[in-house]
Amino acid sequence: MTPPVATPEKVVKVPGNTLLTATPEEGRALAFELAYRSVQVIQPDPAALDRGRPVYANDPAALIAASQVVATEFATIAAANNYWRP
Amino acid sequence: MTPPVATPEKVVKVPGNTLLTATPEEGRALAFELAYRSVQVIQPDPAALDRGRPVYANDPAALIAASQVVATEFATIAAANNYWRP
Amino acid sequence: MTPPVATPEKVVKVPGNTLLTATPEEGRALAFELAYRSVQVIQPDPAALDRGRPVYANDPAALIAASQVVATEFATIAAANNYWRP
Amino acid sequence: MTPPVATPEKVVKVPGNTLLTATPEEGRALAFELAYRSVQVIQPDPAALDRGRPVYANDPAALIAASQVVATEFATIAAANNYWRP
Amino acid sequence: MTPPVATPEKVVKVPGNTLLTATPEEGRALAFELAYRSVQVIQPDPAALDRGRPVYANDPAALIAASQVVATEFATIAAANNYWRP
Amino acid sequence: MTPPVATPEKVVKVPGNTLLTATPEEGRALAFELAYRSVQVIQPDPAALDRGRPVYANDPAALIAASQVVATEFATIAAANNYWRP
């Protein structure tokens, strides 16, 4: 992956700048956000992303691969929150 | 992955909003649920998912990739439950 | 992955309902079982699985991907058993 | 992955039935063994494996995927040996 | 992967030679840097990378795979920083 | 993956037979070495590797997959070195 023309500083990569969330549900939402924003950092052109949306969103293999990214991000967030153990 | 039109808040991403389960079997079921719901968050259109079902469910490579997602989710859930050690 | 018609409750996802095994060899066998059963949960139709068997079993890329699932499951089981350290 | 006709009990999945090795080099060799044997458990037919050998061994994508399996197995073995720290 | 003609010593693989960052946002940026630089180490020819850029940046599957690399690097960086827990 | 004719004992899989390095940069270099050597163990024929080099080095998907291997190896090496925390 070559960086785009310049690392797109403007994309906030970690909303809230923390991995700590109150609940697993919030942690899961954060995992999705990290994954979405990764793509936006790598491909900052919204039009390119819009062209890609119908392609991957209707491709089971891509949906599964995207779920793998979410699962990996969630593993990190869950560990960060000590698995929201009481 | 660009988010769908709006992050589908209505999909509950973590049923029960906890990673803690009584047994490995329940933990495994939760891992499947997290994986299923990831796809539903990324592609909220049930019709699109229904079209995809026969494609991936009869494609060994997709079944294996889906199993990889479950394995990754389960690793997180198992750690959360301290591997259900007595 | 949309769930099959209904999550196939009948498939026992974690044989013995424990991740604890006496030896690494047993732990490895359990990792294979978890991986096999994942596919059976996602695709409960035995005929579909039988059709897929000769496809993936003679496809090096699929065999390697399946080995990746086993490696990921085994990582979880090994951690659960504290790596069977004496 | 449907299991082959019967889980091939005869394949020893973890040579020596331990993850503990004296050195990283031995641990790395064990990681390769676990990966090789995974394929042999999933596809016990030597002739099928021999047919696949020239395919994957000359396919960079398959070689890279196989390296990923080794890296994942090694992560488990390294953790088991506490990274061979003095 | 055979190494390029010679491991390109000149590419700094870990900017700042540390995994420790002040915040998750900085940690995330480092994860992107590690991923970008991996590609530059494996393929040191800028022209080849420039040719590849429009290919992967408009290919949802490649964008997702790249996000997987970032997620894996971030998991390491987050653990290094003890998840930036207060 | 069936092993090559004989596991190529001659390839040193872990240069220096240790995962411990002085700095993250050295740890990163070791991660690349482990990944390169994995391919050399699986495919010991230099001519085959040379044929593969231009294929994967100009294929973004393969470069990304190779980066994933490096990221996984680095995660192990970073943990081995306790993330080079002061």
TrEMBL record, chains A, B, C, D, E, F:
Q: Which domain of life is it from?
A: Bacteria
Q: Which InterPro entries match?
A: Hexamer_Tyr-coord_heme_pr_HTHP (IPR021111), HTHP_sf (IPR038125)
Record Pfam families: HTHP (PF11534)
Question: What is the protein named?
Answer: Hexameric tyrosine-coordinated heme protein
